[in-house]
Amino acid sequence: MTLKINSFEPDIFLNRDINLNIPVYGINLAIWPLPSAFKESYDKFRNKLLEFDSTNIYVYPYKQTHITLMTLVNFKNYEYPSDKKVYQFKKIVPQIISEVIPILHEVRPFKIYVGKPKLFKNAAILEILNESGEIKKIRDDAYKILNQELSIELAPLPKRIHCTILRFKNCPDNIQTFTKKFQSLTDNFYLGESIIDEILLTAEKKPYMIAGEILYRFSLRKN
């Protein structure tokens, strides 16, 4: 079945700086990077994508892959943040940690399944399946509590659990050719299953985790 996409949208950050050196600041609850068991297969797949069109696409290196459970501070709203603004955000980190710890207290390591890549007009993603429901519960519980307790307005929860892997530097010249080639490369690509045993609180200092920082590790492994 052929993908039906009429146009692609170049990314606003890549369009300005293909090296993504724009300073930003964001805070997320995340799984970062994808589980290490996927690294070898992901790297091979990334190379195949770049071989067919490195001019127009940016494919996340493995170290930038991440699954955002919840965005607390959206980096897209804070380009070139002042030291004062970063300090203000860092001041709420201890409160975030103290509110999230009880939410994760009863959560044990859980399984995720990484589905095949899906292409949209502005990106390509890996859909993440968590049939036992831990991610949805963490998201819902954390949003409810943090939206009440924090002094900042939270971003809406993402509609789907996913890992973005590709964005556009430019719109490919022939959209139909691009979509057919993308589909041929991805039809039989699956990373498979893995166990998640920790959730991270991360800071995003350049777009798309090209420069990230772990603010706290929430271990799901109980003593």
The oligomerization state is single chain
Major sheet characteristics? 5 strands, antiparallel
Percentage of residues assigned to helices:
25-40%
| Strand order in the largest sheet | 2-6-5-4-7
Order of helices and strands: EHEEHHEEHEHEEE
Low-confidence stretches: none
What does the overall shape look like? globular
- Rounded to the nearest angstrom, the distance between the terminal CA atoms is 49 Å
Rg, Å, rounded: 18 Å
Percent range for β-strand residues: 25-35%
Number of E-state strands = 9
Overall residue-averaged pLDDT value: 93
- If helices are DSSP runs of H or I spanning 4 or more residues, what is the number of helices? 5
SS class: alpha+beta
Describe it:
There is one protein chain. The chain is of the alpha+beta class. It has five helices and nine strands; from the N terminus they run E-H-E-E-H-H-E-E-H-E-H-E-E-E. It has helices spanning 39-53, 83-91, 93-104, 134-149, 175-186; strands spanning 26-31, 57-59, 67-73, 110-119, 123-129, 162-168, 192-196, 198-206, 211-219. Helix 3 (93-104) packs antiparallel against helix 4 (134-149). The model has no long low-confidence stretch (mean pLDDT 93).
